[in-house]
## 1
Amino acid sequence: MSPTAIELSTLGHRIRHQRVSRGYTLDELGAIVGVAGSQLSLIENGKREPKLSLLQAIASATGTEVTDLLSTEPPNRRAALELELDRAQASPVFRRLGLPPLKVTRTMSDETLESVLALHRELHRREREAIATPEEARRANTELRLRMRARGNYLPDIEKLAEKQLRAAGHTAGALTHRTVSIMAEQLGFELIYASDLPHSARSVTDLENGRIYLPPASIPGGHGLRSMALQAMAHRLLGHTPPTDYADFLQQRLEINYYAACCLMPETASVAFLTQAKKERDLAVEDFRDAFGVTHEAAGMRLTNLLTEHFGIRLHFLRVDGTGAISRVYENDELPLPMDVTGSVEGQIVCRKFAARSAFGEQNRTTEQYQYTDTPAGTFWCSSQTGSTSDGEFSITVGVPFDDARWFRGRETQKRATSTCPDEACCRRPDADLTQRWEGKAWPSARVHMQMFSPLPRGAFPGVDDGEVYAFLDRHAGR
C-alpha cells in the first residue's frame, strides 16, 4: 500500500529536521547520498516517495535510524503545525470553499500558523455541529417514515420492553399514574425533579452523574406531557442511546423514545384488548381510546398507527395539520394521496382544502370529532378529525381508513362527503376562473413572511439545544 500524502509529508519533515540539525544544505546532503538537491527537496516537501536505499543513506549521513525517519510523530512543534495545516487544507470542508491553499514559507511565524489553524478548527467545529442541511434533514425524515411504513409503524422489541418495565413497577391496568412513572424512574436509578428554570431549549434534562431527571413544573394542566417527557428521558437509558452521530440517528432516537412513552401510557396488551372489544361492537373511536388511558387525542390517534395494522389488519392514516393547512406530523399506509416535495418529504406540505383535516376548522362545534368521507383519485376514505389550539395556533388531528374499513368505526354513518382531485391544481390550488377574470392584475396582497423560512437548521449533537444553558442549569442544581 502506498503511503498517504500526510505520511509522506511527515517523513519529509523528519528528514528536513535531521538535515538542518546536522547543518547540511539540500545540495550538501544530496551530494553525500547521491541525489540532486532538487530531488531531495521534493522528498522533504512530501512530493516524492524515497526508495528504501535512499532512506538508509540519509539515515547514515545524518546519524539516525531509518525507523526514526519513518516515525509518524512530527519532529518538532513547527512541523506539527505545518502537518496539521496540510490535513486541514486537504479536507472536503476547506476544498468546498474554493479557496487556494496557504503556502507555508520559512519566514512565516508559528503564531501566524496558529491563527490560521484556529480558523480551520472553528470551521470544522461548525461543520460537525451542523449535522444536516435542510435538504438532508428532509431526506432523513422521509427515509425514516418509509422504513416505519414498511414495518406497519410497529416496533415489537420496544413494546415488550415497555410491558416489562410496567410490570416491574406494579402497573396492571388503567391510566398510568405519575406515581408509577416515578417508581419506574427509581428502578433505573433516577429521581424526577420538577424545575422552574429549565433551559428554554430543552424539554427535559437528565443528570447522569447525580441520577436526576429534571422536568418542567408539575403545574402543567393535566400533566399528560410530564409523564411522557419522563418516560422519554428514561427511554434513552433503557435503549442504550449514545449522542447521535448525524441527523438520521437523532430522528431515529426521537422516534424510539416517543414510541416507548406511548407503549407505557397505552400498553399493548391492554390497548389491544380495548380495541378488540370496540371493534367487535363496531364502535372504534379515537376519543374513547384517549379517555380510557388518560392521554391526549394526538397520542391516542398516533398509537392507533402502531396497533391497527399489526393486530387488526386495518390500514390507516394519521395527520396533524396546522391552521394554515401545513402537515406537521404524518403517517399513512393506506395510500391516501398526500402532497410531497421533490425529495418525497410530506412534512410542511399543504393538504387539500377538501380534506377533513382542513374543513374541520370551519365547524361550529369543535368539542367533538368531525366525520367525513372523501373521494380521491386513490379511492374513498373515511376519517374523523378533532381540532385544538396551542400558543402556536390551532391544529387538527385526523385518523382515517379506506372506505371498506369504516364499518368498524363510530361516525361511519355520516352524510358529509367531499371530493378531492389533488394533486390536480384545479382541485383547490387554482383560483376560480370567474374570480380570476374579475380580479387578476387588480390585487396586490402583502405577503406574510414565515420567519422559519430564514431560520437555519438547529445545530449541535442534540439539534437546537444550547449546551451552555444545559451545563449552567446542571451546575446550579448539582449542590442541592
Note: Residues 58 and 358 are 80 Å apart (CA to CA).
## 2
Amino acid sequence: MQLPVIRTVVALAALVFAAAISPAQTIVPASPEDRALAKEIFKQLIEINTTDTDKGNVTTGNVAMQKRFLDAGFPASEVHLLGPDPRKMNLIVRIPGRTRTKGVLFLCHMDVVQALPSDWHTDPFQFVEKDGYYYGRGTQDMKDSDAALVYTFLRLHREGYTPERDLILALTADEEGGNFNGAHWLVENHRDLVDAAFVINPDAGGIDLDHGKAIEADVEATEKIYADFRISATNRGGHSSLPRPDNAIYELTAALQKLAAFHFPFELNPVTRAYTEEMVKLVPAAQAADLRALLATPPDMGAVERVSADAAWNSTIHTTCVATMLSAGHAHNALPQLAEANVNCRILPGHTPEEVRQQLAAVFADPGLTVATVLQEIAYAGHSTQQAMAPPPPLDEVFVPMRKLVNQLWPGVPVVPEMEAGATDSVFFAMQGYPSYGFSAVALEHDDVRAHGQDERIPIESYEKSVDFFYAYVKALGK
C-alpha cells in the first residue's frame, strides 16, 4: 500500500440504501482459543521476512500458510501455490460454494516494505507485544489483514461452513515493489483462479480514530494514478577546484525548489465534490466554512489555499508530485556530470502521466533538464494511460452487511467510500472491469499511520476487532 489514504465519497453512493435489508449478521467475539490462533498466525507472518531483498522471500510466507490450510484438511485441489518466480509465489485458497457461481475474491499482498533494524526501537521482523500494541513490519500494511483472513478461512472450514458462492483468498507478491506483481500476473495468466463477482482488498480503508473515538469507516472504491518521473541534469563537469554556476546539482535542485513551490490546479470532480459535501457536516465550523467555499461557483481560492495546507486535503483536491530520491556526482573532487531525481506523482483521475510530465517540464522551464517517464502503473494490463478508473457501483451486497457489522463494533459510525491517493493491487482488477473495494476493518488514530515507516504497530484491540469483523463479513458475503 502506498500512503496516505485520502477519503472521497463515490458519487451516487448513499449512506443508507433503500434496498431490502437482510437480517444482520451478529458479531460474536472469538473464543480465547480462536484469539490465540489468530495471534499465532499474525506472529508467524510478521517473523517471515517477505521484503523484495536478498533476505526476503514471499514464497516462504505462502508455503507456511499453504501448510496450515492443507494440515487443516483443505483439499489440495483448492489450494494453489504458483507464480513466475521461485521467490515470488502466490497462494490461492478457495472455499467452494453450493452454486459455484462467481464468488468473492479477498485480495491481500504478502510482501512488505524493507525495514532497517537500526532505524527501529524493536526488531522489525520480530513480533513484539508492548503497551497495548503489536509491533513489527507489516502490522499495518498488511499482514494484519492477511492473518485475519487466513484465520477466518481456517475457522470456516473447521466449522464445516459451506457458502452459497465461492470464497477466494489470494495472498500475492510484489505489491510494494519488485518485478513479479502477483495480482497482475494472476489476472493475466490464471484468471480462472481469481475470477469473481467483485473484489475486497483490505489494503485500504479502515476506521479513522480521533483520540480513541471512531469518526468514520472508509471504504476504498477508486484510486489516483501512480507515476514516477526521472529528472536529469547533465554537465561537462570539471575539477572541483574550479567551481562554476552551471553545476548539474545546482541546476537540479533549482528545479526541485520550483516544484516544491508549485501546486497543480485545484479540481473537484463529482466524486470529490460529493465527499466534500459530506465532510461539511462532520468537521469544525471554521473548516466547514472553507469547504463550502470550495464548493462555490467560482471557488474561493483563499479557501483552497487554506484547505491545501492539510496534506490529506491537498491530495484530495490536487494532483501531487514530490521528489523522493536523489543521485549525483561521480567523485568527491570533480564537478558532477550528472544529477538525477525521482519525482513521484499521484494523479487525479481523468489526467494522464504524459499530461503531468509536460506540466513538470513547463514548471522547470529549463531546456537543460530532461523529464522522462519511469513508471506509469495504470498502464499495466494493456490499458491506456488515457483511461481513468471509474468508481464501481455501490453494491448493496457489499455495503449493507458492512454497515450492519461496522455499526455493531463502532456504533453510529458512517461508512464512507473513498478515493485512494496511493496505489493498491485493486488497479489490476478494476481496470479489467471487476468492482473492487478496500476495507481493512482496522481502527487507527489518524496521526499514527506507520505503514512503511519506523516502529510500525497496530493496537491489539484493533487487530482483534478486525478478526471478529472479517469472520462475520466473509460469512455475510458468502450468504
Note: The chain is about 35% helix and 20% strand.
## 3
Amino acid sequence: MTELLTLGLRVRHHRTTTSLTLDELAAQVGCSPSQLSLVENGKREPRLTLVHALARSLDVEVADLLSPEPPTHRAALEIALDRAQRSPAYAALGLPDVRPSKSLTTETLEALVGLHTELARRVAAAIATPEEARRANTELRRWMRERDNYLPDVEEAALDALRWGGYTSGALTHRSVARIAEHFGFTLLHVDDLPHSTRTVTDLANGRIYLPPASIPGGLGLRSLALQAIGHRVLGHSTPRGYADFLRQRLEISYFASACLLPRDAAVEFLTAAKKAKDLAVEDFRDAFGVTHETAALRMTNLLTSHLDLRVHFLRAGDDGALYRGFENDGMAFPTDSTGAIEGQSICRQWPARVAFTRRDRTTEYHQYTDTPHGTYWSSTQTGEATAGAFAISFGVPFGSAKWFRGRETTTRTVSRCPDPDCCRRPDPELAAYWSQNSWPSATVHAHVLAPLPSGTFPGVDDSEVYAFLERHGNGATGRSR
C-alpha cells in the first residue's frame, strides 16, 4: 500500500512540475482521468505498460517513478500519515481518517504526523517491558500454526525416552519418569525450598533435578515438571540467547512432556476409536492417561489435525475473560493487541469460556455452539480453580466437525459479533450517561504485570537465589557440601 502511494505521489510530482493537468496526462497515456487519479492517490496498482507510458510522457526514467523515495518533504508526510492512519492503535480510537488535500497545509501535516508518532511511542511504551517476549511468542504461535501444532522430531524423542522408561500402556507412572531421568544421568529430588522464581532447578554438575514436594495433592503436575526438566537434555538445548530462544525451548520441553504423558501411538489409537464411535471427548482422553484437563486438550491440538484431519482451537482464559494462551488452525479469531499477541486480551462475553462461569454446576464439561463473524464453532469447556483464580479450558472445532464429538447435541447457542464494540464491550448508553460521571472503580492490579522480570542468565530467573539454593543442596563450585 505504501509503495503504491509513493508511486502515485511521484507521478503527481512530475505531472505538476511539467504543468500538465490530470486530463492532459490521461489523454497522452491512453487512460481515463479517474483511473489516473486512483493511481496518483495510491488506490490502484498500474499495469507496467501504463508505467512505461507515464515515464515517456513525463520525460523521466521508469526507475525514477518506481523509486521508493518520496519526491518531496510533503509527499513523505502524506505517506507517513497514511501509514499511521492504517495502524491498529489508530483504528482502535474510532476516529475518521484525515485526507491530505491541497487545503491541508504542510505545517498541519507535520503536526498530525508528530501526534501519530507520539501515539505510536506511547503504545510501544505501554508494552515496553514484555514487548520482546510478546512479539517472540506471537511469531512462535504463528510458526506452530503453520505446522498444525505438531512437531515430529519431538514426538520421536519422546517415544525413545518412553522406551528407556519401560512404558507399555496406560498412564505413565512416576517410576517410569524416574527411570527416564536415570537413563539421562539425573536423580529426581523433591525439596520444599525451591527458589521463588523457578519451577524446577537442574544441577548439571551433580546430576540432580530438584522438584516441588512430592506431597502435593494428586501430584499430576510433578511428572510433567520432571519431564520438562529432562527435555532440555533430550532436545540438546543450550543457554537461551534471548526471549525468542527461551520461549521456543519452553514450548519444546512442554511438548516433550505432553508427548511422554500421552504417547503418540497410544493416544492416536484412542482418539481414532473415539472418532469412529463419534464420541471424542477431552474428559475421556484426560482420564485414560491420567493427566490434567488442559494437558489433554493441548495434546488433542497436536494430534487431531496431523492424524485425524480435524482442525481445532484451544484457549485458556480467566474468569475475568483475560486470554492466557491459545491455539487455532480452524479460523477461530482470537483478539489481539497491536503486536499481534493474544495474551491478556479480553475474549467475547458470548464465548463458552466466559458463559461457562455463569453455570451453577461446573463439575462437568459445558458444550456450546457460537455464531461468530468467521463462522459457527462448537466447543467443550471445563472450568477450574488455581492459586491465581478461576480459569476455563475451552476446546472446539468448526460446526461441520462437531459430529465427531460428545456433546454435539447441545441446543445452547450464542451469537458473538466481536470485535464489534456493540457486541459486549460498549456499556448501555443510558447507564453510561449517568455512571460515567458518578463512579470511580478501583481496578484489580496483577503485580506480575507491572514488575519487570529479573534479568539473569535465564529470563525471569533470579540467579543469586538459584545459586544459593544449589550451594545449600549439593557440592557447588565452592566445595561446600550440604
Note: The domain at 2-96+104-126 is CATH 1.10.260.40 (434 Repressor (Amino-terminal Domain)).
## 4
Amino acid sequence: MRAVAASFERTTLGNGLRVLTAPMPQAKSVACFLMLATGSRYETRETSGIAHFAEHMFFKGTERRPTARDIAGEIDAIGGEFNAFTGKEYTGYYVKCAAEHRDVALDVLVDMIRNSLFDPDEIEREKGVIVEEMNMYFDTPRDCVDSVYDSLLYGDQPLGWDIIGTKETVRAATRDTFLDYLGCWYRAPRIVAGVGGALGDGLPERLEGLLGDVAGGETPEPAPVEIDQATPRVRVHTKASDQAHLRFGVHSYPIDHPDRYALSLVATVLGGGMSSRLFTEVRERRGLAYYVYGYNQGYTDTGTLFAQAGVDIERIDEAIRTIAGEFRRIADEPVAADELEKARNYSKGRLVLSLEDPKGMIVFGLRGEVLEGRVREPDEVLAGYDAVTAEDVQRVAADVIRDERLNLALIGPFEDAARFEALLPAPA
C-alpha cells in the first residue's frame, strides 16, 4: 500500500493549549475541532452525565448568539455542519464548512465553548430532552447492551457508568453543576484545537486570538481503573423482546500497548467484515444472527475485546457456544497466512479510507493527541499492521482470551444468569 505523507503539524499556545493541523491542499473544505481530554470518566456519582449534558447546553446560546436558532442560523448561512460527541475519555465539538468560511466556523465554535449562557430555564427544558434520549437508548437493546457489558466489566467506577448519566443526576443538575465541571476540566492543557483540510492563511494568529487567553493550570487525573476478575461472569438484563442481544468478551490492552496492532488484527480476524470468522460461522453457516461483529475498545489504561450479536432467543445457547468457540480457536490455533493478510489489508484499507476527508484526518490525529499525548502518523500505523505475524496474533489472543476472564452480557426475555454461566468454560 502506498505510503501516506506526513500529515500533522503540532504547536502549543503560551497557555498550554495545543493546536493540531492537518493540511490537505487538495480539499475545498475545512474541519474545525475543539477536543478535550475529559469525558464521562472524569465525573463523580453525583455529576454522572454532566459531560454529555454540557455538550447539549453548548448549542443553546451565548451572549453574542443568545439562542440555539442564532447559532444554527449562522452555520446554516455558510452551508456548514456542526455537532459534538461525548466519550468516556474525550469530548469533541466541530464545524465543517467550505474553506472560505473557516473564520466564521472557528468564531462560532469557540464562542459556544467559551461563552455559553447555561440559562437555568434552558437547562430545565433540556432535562426533558435528555431523559427522552435516555428512554430511547434503554429501549434499544442493540445500544443498551453496551451499558450492561461495561457495568459487568468495570462495576461501580466511572468506566462502568453510562455516558448519559442517570435520570436522577440529570434532573438534579443546576447551572453551578455545569460551571464547576467546566471550571475544573475545560482548561487549556486539556484542550486541543484541530483544523484539517484547506487551512488558509493566518490560522496561527486566528487561533491565538480566539484561544490564547483560555485559563491554564493543573487539573486532576481520574482514578486508574481497577480490574479484579478470577472467574467468568454473566449479567442478564431482563427485557421482553423477540431477539436477544449479547456481548461476549474479555479484558484486553490499553490503547498504547506494544501489541496494539496485533490485538487489532485479532479483532479483525474474529469479526471485521462480512467474511470474518464470526460473520461466516454465526450468520452465514448457522443463521443465528442478523448482525454480528468483533471489536477491540481501548482506553488509556485498559481495554476490552468483544463480540456483539443480535440472535434468535430460541437459539441463544448455540450462539453463545459458537462465539465462545471462535474466541477459543483464535487463541489455540495459528491464523493461516492468507487469512492474516486479508485481515491486515482490511484494517489498512479502512484506515486509509477514513483519512480521505478533512474531518476523518483531523479526528484521527486528535484522538492520538488527546488520549496518548502524541500523534501517530498514518504511515506508523500502516507499518505497525505490516509488522504483525501469525505468531503475534496467536500469542496476543492466548494472552487476553482466558477462561477466567470471560464476560457475557445479555438483554432478552431471560431471568436466570446461572443458565448462561453453565455455557462458559470453568477456569482451569
Note: DSSP finds 16 helices and eleven strands in the chain.
